[in-house]
Amino acid sequence: MELTVRPIDVDFVYDELDTNAITFRLADGYFSIQTCVYLEDDERLNEPMVELGSQGAQSGGLVRVLICPREIRLQFRESLCFLHECTLISIVFDELVDVTLVNFFVNHLFLGDILIYGDDFDASKKVIQTRKREYL
User: Fold this and answer.
1) Which residues does 122 contact at the CB level (< 8 Å), separation at least 6?
2) Would 132 be classed as within a structural domain?
3) Phi/psi class of residue 127: alpha, beta or left (left: φ > 0; alpha: ψ in -120 to 50)?
4) Would you say residue 13 lies in a domain?
5) The organism sits in which domain of life (predicted)?
6) pLDDT digits (tens, 9 = 90+) for 44-62
């Protein structure tokens, strides 16, 4: 199953309580992705936490992030679907995806290893991961 969300606003959280987070405000709630700024010994805690308002949250299972001009697609492992149902979440924007948003996914959510760009994505907005997490 695929879930589509259409944000009306985006909030960024940088290193508050050792957490980076992006929250997409929706007409009827929110969709959020957050991660710890440090690595933990328990690998499961190093996975990003994905949350859809009151419907629930999940840590782990994210295998690929595809950045397109007006969309970001999050793909989950078949065996670890988001909320036991969704293998794909599409975040669809009215505006073009900008470099600030791409940089947050790459260098603040630390998803550079699983992030790819669509063929039609503007090359000037592509970001190389330069930040890495370390153990505390």
Assistant:
1) 69, 96
2) no
3) beta
4) yes
5) Bacteria
6) 889 999 999 999 999 999 9
